[in-house]
TrEMBL record:
Pfam families: SLH. It comes from Sporanaerobacter acetigenes DSM 13106. It comes from the Bacteria. PROSITE patterns: SLH. This is S-layer homology domain-containing protein. InterPro entries: SLH_dom. Residues 1-22 form the signal peptide. Residues 353-416, 418-479 form the SLH domain. Keywords: Signal. The keyword Signal applies.
Length: 487
């Protein structure tokens, strides 16, 4: 199966400046997939039937319009069932600032389901479907939510029988450099009508939750031989796991005879992708060995968030604003805002881009990183056209930057409140919301004191950034998947 791009990913790639994970969202029929297999469950016969096969998605973007075509070829050998389905969708995007709304409509639909000798057919005129979605981009993370409604009518035996499936669905998800998740919830109401024998009519309900998650994990691996030039190193592993859960309340049948009582139950299945493994560089730093934050600093150095080739890092020394900008950009895999070097590719008479800050020239070691975090809205200058790249960063400033990247500062209480730290009164007003949220999310420690105006050391900054990575990998994913699936 070819890899393809889902709607929300297309929007985030269009609007968002950071690198994004490519989650393969297999449409809106409630299925899950990996590189080669697609699976979904249907309820139109009065019992759940799991179908498996292939799905091909073609996506095109032109200006503010996205078109998609989904082609399904599925079967269940045990149930003697085969399904072919083609869906064509289009949507119009409306962008205002850092958010985009869209309206998605159905352009074409055709479905044929055969079970034994019985054929179920759906054509354009028998399927009504529409969806509305909003995407909101913060400096680092893209969040999206959507709702859709549909009514699909299967025609059976030349119209002597029909099955109408009413669907109400919603989705919610996010995309970040270390994880991406989307969870869809669908509620079905199924009505079977026999035009000849009304006594055979029945109705049922079903609910389905499908969750798609991509996570980038890191692991330090020791080398077994002693006689080797490096002790060990970090592995990055990217993997997508997909989970589908469903429940149903349907009539009971024996062959084609409807019995008293109801057929109720629930089940689930999952599909994973083959992991992609990347080995990181081996940092030269030696003065962090044996320290409590050793692994954090080695990880960041392996990603060049800290200097890769320096043997001396100075873990207890303070971190500058410019070096923190570099650490954020490289640890979050944010593309650099670099001026085109090849003058032949520049437009004729195009003026040379001037530095944003008067104290950060193009020859500064962190120039590209500072330009990048500024354009993304991750860090700001100190006023009067200055950034002060070599000024040390405080603990309050570092924490504020991380929560700003998430866009979560508004999660703090509105009225007077305390962060719970004994030095709460020393936290600057502009940082208080960010510190409160960071503590609530577990990104910073719940120690008695926060020391907001103390310069943050390189060791402390490394621990803070790795805590932030762990939050993106685990806690954020949990809220968008387990909290919904286990609700």
């Amino acid at each position: 199966m070819k890899k393809h791009i889902a709607f929300f990913l297309a929007l985030i790639l269009l609007l968002s400046p950071m690198e994004s994970f490519a989650i393969n969202i297999p449409g809106y029929e409630g299925g899950i997939q990996n590189e080669s297999i697609y699976k979904e469950v249907i309820f139109v016969t009065g019992e759940p039937i799991v179908l498996e096969g292939t799905l091909e998605i073609k996506t095109k973007m032109k200006n503010d319009t996205i078109t998609e075509q989904y082609t399904y070829k599925l079967s269940n050998i045990a149930k003697d069932a085969k399904l072919s389905r083609t869906i064509k969708l289009s949507e119009k995007l409306d962008t205002k600032g850092n958010q985009t709304t869209s309206k998605k409509t159905l352009d074409g639909y055709k479905e044929t389901l055969t079970i034994g000798k019985k054929k179920y057919e759906v054509k354009d005129e028998n399927y009504q479907w529409n969806q509305g979605t909003v995407v909101h981009n913060t400096p680092l993370v893209g969040y999206h939510a959507g709702d859709w409604s549909a009514r699909k009518t299967y025609i059976v035996d030349k119209g002597k029988e029909s099955i109408t499936v009413q669907t109400v669905g919603n989705l919610v998800g996010y995309d970040s450099p270390w994880s991406a998740t989307e969870t869809q919830t669908l509620d079905y109401t199924i009505n079977y009508e026999n035009k000849i024998d009304k006594k055979r009519n029945w109705e049922g309900t079903a609910s389905l939750e499908a969750s798609y998650n991509m996570t980038k994990d890191y692991e330090y691996v020791d080398n077994v031989p002693n006689q080797i030039s490096f002790k060990g190193g970090f592995l990055l592993t990217e993997k997508q796991d997909n989970v589908l859960k469903y429940s149903y309340d349907l009539p009971r049948f024996k062959e084609e005879t409807m019995l008293n009582g109801r057929n109720t139950g629930k089940d689930s299945f999952s599909i994973d992708t083959n992991p992609i493994i990347t080995r990181l560089n081996i940092p030269a730093v030696r003065d962090v060995l044996g320290l409590p934050n050793e692994k954090d600093m080695l990880l960041l150095a392996s990603m060049e968030a800290l200097p890769l080739g320096s043997t001396y890092l100075g873990p207890s020394s303070s971190m500058s604003r410019g070096d923190f900008a570099r650490a954020i950009v490289n640890s979050m895999n944010i593309p650099l805002e670099k001026e085109e070097e090849n003058t032949k590719k520049k437009k004729k008479n195009q003026e040379e881009k001037l530095p944003t800050y008067i104290d950060v020239g193009k020859n500064h070691r962190n120039y590209d990183y500072i330009e990048t975090v500024t354009k993304r809205g991750i860090m700001e200058g100190v006023g009067r056209g200055k950034f002060e790249p070599d000024k040390y960063l405080t603990r309050a400033e570092a924490t504020t930057i991380l929560i700003r990247m998430l866009g979560f500062q508004n999660l703090a209480p509105i009225k007077n409140y305390s962060t719970g730290y004994k030095d709460n009164g020393s936290i600057p007003a502009w940082a208080k919301d960010h510190v409160y949220v960071a503590k609530m999310l577990g990104i910073i420690e719940k120690d008695p004191y926060f020391y907001p105006n103390t310069d943050i050391t390189k060791a402390e900054a490394s621990e803070l950034i790795v805590n932030f990575i762990n939050y993106l990998q685990k806690s954020l994913k949990y809220d968008y998947r387990e909290n919904i699936l286990n609700n």
